[in-house]
Amino acid sequence: MNPMLTALARMLIFPGLLFAVPAAWFFLWVERKAVARMQERVGPPFMQPFWDFMKLLGKSTPPRPGIAGFIMRAWPLIAVASAAGAVGLLPVLPASGGFEGDLILLLALLELPSICIIAAGFSSRSIFGEIGSAREAALSVSYNIVFLLAIVSIAASQHTFRLEALASMHPSFLTVLGIIAILICLPAKLHINPFSLPNAEQEIYAGPMTEYAGPELAMWELAHGLEWVAATGLVATLLTPHNIVPHIALAWAATLLAGCIFVVLSVAVVLLLSVLAAATARLAIDSSVRFYWQCTLIFAVLAISSALFVRFWS
Amino acid sequence: MKLWKRLMCTARRKSPWLFHMNSGSCNGCDIEIIAALSPRYDAEQLGVLLQGSPRHADILVVTGPVTNKAVHAVKTVYDQVCGPKAVVAIGSCPATTNVFIDSRTLAGPLDKHVPVDVFVPGCPPRPDAIIAGVVKAATLLADRGNDSPKPAIVIAETVVEVQP
What we know:
The complex is a heterodimer of chains A (about 325) and B (about 160). With about 325 residues, chain A is mainly α. Chain A has helices at about 5-10, 15-40, 50-55, 65-90, 100-125, 125-160, 165, 175-190, 215-240, 250-280, 285-314. Chain A has one domain (about 5-314). Chain A has eleven helices and no strands. In chain A, helix 4 (about 65-90) packs parallel to helix 9 (about 215-240). Chain B has helices spanning about 1-15, 30-35, 70-80, 90-95, 125-145; strands spanning about 15-20, 50, 60-65, 85-90, 120, 155. Chain B is of the alpha/beta class and about 160 residues long. The longest helix of chain B has 18 residues, at about 125-145. In chain B, strand 3, helix 3 (about 70-80) and strand 4 form a beta-alpha-beta unit. Chain B has a single domain, classed as Rossmann fold. The interface of A and B includes residues 59 and 206 of A.
């Protein structure tokens, strides 16, 4: 098939927009429902994130004159675009294309929403937004080192920065360590408990989102959902046992199986993170930063040094 | 266009986000609002979420008799909520100023300052009555859409739970 068409289909259909947007709403629902069940509540109905999104689209926004207002309105759109692009890059289906170095692009796209949040909080000029942005920046500096080191150690152990090669790797002790390190970073990346500091509900109103309303807020919600899909999808593709798929003769059956495994693994990761979020309380900023710098950084450094060691030894 | 309107109507009915505003209340009603959101009553089943910022809210939930100090804050927060919006007055204080009537420290009742859509009477009202009031306000909001609020006053009936 034409590689251009394949890339377009990946961006727009699966695992891109057509799949990712409903999946984002579904994951947001799974998270809220899981937290509710943990608290012995019934929780929101299945369509709730969709209704929230539609309602926000129909609300008015306060006037935002000038270039500052334009910039403020642009941040959520950039966040949605980059999160959707990150989902589109995931190598879910076997032989889905990709290029050398797409892992680096994926990491950059995963990081962009958080940079947008920092910028949005400061450009909204609300002091609560600024506090939230400062917290997000401090947190992002802490977890990203561990997150990047973990991914680089997996990539170094496989000698490649190509996502498809990483997805079809045979799991080893080192890659399992790396995946655990990524999982530890996900609560901070997704702003859920115990690292829900940047948008700490009620505590600093709504953090960087405090001044956003209506369709802009809807875009932030969508970006958050897409971040869920991209981040859990990254873990799911690393965990997927891709080596069983080529043994199936029928191409469409292999594709279907790969898609199903991806969705099931992603939902499992979402459930795991939601249960963790419901079971923990919000940490203060200093203990969160200390957690990443003191407790997890050592393991990340160990992982990458052993990966490099193994690479040069063999 | 008609389909979009109906979709929006359903979305507004199913997703009322609250902002809780205390205008000098004794905390009795505030505790009952929290009880309405807690596991026993679980208002999230109906899509109700308590929001931290008035910019995110659809329904302003006001408690207290509106003291002189709080008038300005109530008006500011009402203007900060983006339309379409509704106001629910929780308890007898914002409706009539209750036992504090004729006090020189009060600027209430609430509907002298902002248009109120639903009154939930009681001192304090039960959590199920608060949920009924919020749902009624969400229904009003869905029917009204972007039109300006009419001075229609609805009193949510107090649901009395019979204990066995």
